[in-house]
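Why does this matter for the project? Reviewers at the last site visit asked to see concrete outputs rather than summary tables. In response, this paragraph embeds two records directly. Each consists of the residue sequence and, immediately after it, the corresponding structure tokens. Nothing has been edited or filtered.
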Amino acid sequence: MKTLAQQWLDHSRAVLDQIEQTQMANLRHAAEVMADSIQAGRWVHTFGCGHATIPVEEMYPRIGGFVGFHPMVELPLTFFTRITGEMGVHQFVFLERVEGYGVEIMKGYNFDPRDTMWIFSHSGINNVNIDVALEARKRGMKVIAYGSAEAAKGKQTRHSSGKNIFEIADIVVDTCAPIGDSAVPLKHHQDKVGPVSTMAFVTCVWMTVCTVAEILADRGVKLYIHPSHNVPGDTTARQRLDEALAEYKKRIAGV
């Protein structure tokens, strides 16, 4: 009998295989829209709540990432440094369901119709993400949603619009993770262990970002890539890093 670690690996491999088998066309479409925004000197804004901020934080700034992705991370909507007490899980669960909060978040930035809004939401039903998606659409942006779209079908949205985020988005990439997220049964317990949504999100992120890079390189667009500054003998790594940060600073001046 397989160990629980092996079972988790099996579930993870199955999710990755399903992404490759079913989502490549959608992923390519999303990457083309993102490439258009970046080539125009504009932004792919990235947003998520809770553990769906992990893909946002993973892609940029990051070794191998490049300028063009603008992380929108709302601190009260993450709970990785506090469990209880200030900014605890109870507050997070409440806040992500507050309709109107996402509208207020969007007031803090300047947007352009050439921008793209890339939202990560596992279930697609919580109000903050839906607020952000609707506000982005109002501003003329394309909205791209990554999450468990197929598994979320039939789940009731919490938003007064009556729609979940996958129904609002222009393009959806299904991360193929189970709606309950955790995948491994544990004896004597009701709840499973071993969630797979973060692994699925991060996999889809790098598949997408690599595709965006491929598209832009084929178009002859220069990318400002974050290099590793820990490789012995690479004497220009700091210079390339400075160039990338300078390009980001130049673009962010309008955001």
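We now turn to the second protein, recorded in exactly the same manner.
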Amino acid sequence: MAHLTIRFFSNSLIRRTTFEMIIPNDIRGEVPENNGKMKTLFLLHGWTGDAWNWVPEYLTEKYNFAIVLPSGENSFWLDGISAGHKFASYIGAELVDYIRRTFGLAKSLDDTYIMGLSMGGFGALRTALAYPDTFGKAAGLSSALIIHDI
């Protein structure tokens, strides 16, 4: 299994940013349950969290998932016009495109998933609804479903 830290300039965030990535590139033993076709999961952390708060590593090998772990700071994964940071655009468009071009992953709707916990659950559901042609499946765990201004 490869653990990667990637640093690049994000046009959405208007600065250099880093994300983590896990790729099950050295699977031994049985063929993964999805017949060997690698899927990509964008995993969003919660409030005050970071990329490594929760990573189900054993699932990457069992189901042959690449996991992308971006940092959303405490943004609720939204575009904050006044701050100049566009975390929804970053996750929903820019980061997915970067993963597609650089790693050849997340090429289709059926291969691209998004999931999050708490604030990340809110971000995952909202981003999946805002970018329906990008994410084939979405999950929010204990989602902080905000019904008023953040």
